[in-house]
Amino acid sequence: MRLTRLHPRTGILFAAILLPFMVALSFGFGATWDEKIQHEYGELVYRYFASGFRDRSALEYKNLYLYGGLFDLLCALAAKWIPADPYIIRHAVNAVFGWIGVAYAGRLASLLFGPAAGLLAMVMLTLSPRYLGDAMNNPKDIPFAALATMATYYLATVERAYPYLNWKTALKLTMAIALAINVRAGGLLFLCYFAALLTLFLATERAPTFALLRRFAATAARFGLIALASVVLGTAFWPWAQAQPFVRPLYALHVLTHFYWPGSVLYRGQYLPATEIPWDYPFVYMLITSPPLVIAGVILSSLLVMRGGLAGRRALGCWVVLFFPLIYVVVQGSMLYDGIRQLMFAYPPMVVVAAGGWTFALRGARRLLVPAVLLMAIGLAEPLIFQLRNHPNQIVYFNLFAGGPRGAFGRYDLDYWGASMLPAVRRAAEIATSASRDVLLSSGDPNDVVQADMGRFSNLIYADKSAATSHLHIELLRGSPEQIAALLASPTVYVVRTADGAPLCVIQPGPRYRELPSHPGF
How far is CA 220 from CA 8, 214, 321, in A? Predict the structure, then answer.
């Protein structure tokens, strides 16, 4: 059917239009919880290289030395070239990485299921509120998700027949895995996927025993060279790991897989220590934070798997890339918090297999074609409308299974990043403008976010909360339902809410609030 027969350049055109759109959109997003230390880490990595490796501060900075420095170094370099607020620059670079993830999700879906699936995958990933929101200002998870999607694409280009890959494919795959390792040690996972893929291909070879042994030896040698090059190049922008490139990335992966975080998580209405979250946490979060269209597409892809054939094997491969990380963290007992942002790299494969499921269903719809297309259009409209109504708070998206953000309020963590604090800071700046004076502004955790956001407004001055000198105070609504209820019950000047009414952040009167002249809405 024509709906599934698109010209390959349609996807290229979509991606070309999307890039400047995402960069421009990033300007409206505020700083997030980890960005200050990520910014500082990028400066230290820059100093490491600029000093000829003599300044080694990056090798012991907090726990960030356990992460590759590629993304933060690029942000530091861009900030030195472009005279603008460093956080705005960081967000633009973040958006470029988010776009890379979209583009490679499209390439992967197109390779596996055809051009129509490629375009649909890009559209669905762009319209996924949490992915797009994180693409604007998540410096930890989006860069890795983007490069992981790139690595998955090049894995998919490995040929089924011996010798499986030529030197061009080997070079591209090596660079993709190395870039992923330069962001997070989890990039080593793709060497495991590669080894498993080659083993599967070798196991299904039909050839005389001697020929099989020769192919096994040659394939093992090629894999060894690619693994060696990937790991060595994977520390090119990772100062700490350069001293022991074959040991420290593995150590970092072990530490981060068993990372300890002392905070608590709001899950199903209970405020639990992060060490005690139930095993179903990642699966439930994937279910309630993905657009229904994507979930339906994954279900439809099961028809592809059951049908078998090349398309079925490809869908099954996407399922492995999607579900293996989720199962692995459950088996390992890894600590998860802030939703499942640490597993963001599993979401693009989910969208890819969903695109494959939908295109397969549309090809076979025939008499039900019109209802199927209408249903898909409604599915695309739902996350788009959410984003239009809730910008720039896309990351608080919950689907109809959770009752939207309002239904999730008091049951799940909403704004874990502090992204809603920029609208609150902007409101404080408007109050300062109306009052014709500078306003002293304090904040609760994360106070680094408010200080970073204030850089955009010249009429706001940061005041430490303990000094009791502020006119206004910003507080993120994060914590137990009782803590949030207490904050909402106290006097408020302004509340940042989602379109359906879920509160995210409040401006409260500070000790010197009465010094401000009356203002509409006080």
Answer: 35, 10, 22
Angle at 187 between CA 100 and CA 159, to 5 degrees: 75
Distance of CA 295 to the CA centre of its chain: 18
Q: Residue 200 has which token pair? A: 């599967």
Cα separation, 327 vs 283, in Å, equals 9
**DSSP structure class, residue 508:** E
CA–CA dist 58, 104 (Å, integer): 31
What's the pLDDT at 73?
A: 98
Q: Please give the Cα distance from 253 to 275 (Å, whole number).
A: 19
pLDDT of residue 521 exceeding 50: no
List the structure tokens of 5. 């027969």
Q: 226: closest CA among 201, 202, 192, 252? A: 192
Which percentage of the chain shows pLDDT scores above 70? 98
Question: What's the CA gap between 153 and 342, in Å, rounded?
Answer: 20
- Cα(49)–Cα(54) distance, integer angstroms: 8
Identity of the amino acid at 252 = A
Radius of gyration of the chain (CA): 24
3-class state of residue 474 by DSSP: strand
For residues 309 and 311, give the distance between their C-alpha atoms in angstroms, rounded to a whole number: 6
Handedness of CA 475, 477, 483, 486 (dihedral sign): positive
Structure tokens given for 108: 């992967």
Give yes or no for a contact between 357 and 297, defined as CB atoms under 8 angstroms apart: yes
Q: Tens of pLDDT along 60-69?
A: 999 999 999 9
What confidence tens digit (pLDDT) does each residue in 445-495 have? Answer: 889 999 999 999 999 999 998 888 999 999 999 988 899 999 999 999 999
Q: What is the pTM of this model?
A: 0.95
How far apart CA 171 and CA 154 sit, in angstroms, is 10
14-33 as b/e: b if 16+ CB within 10 A = bbeebbeebbebbeebbbbb
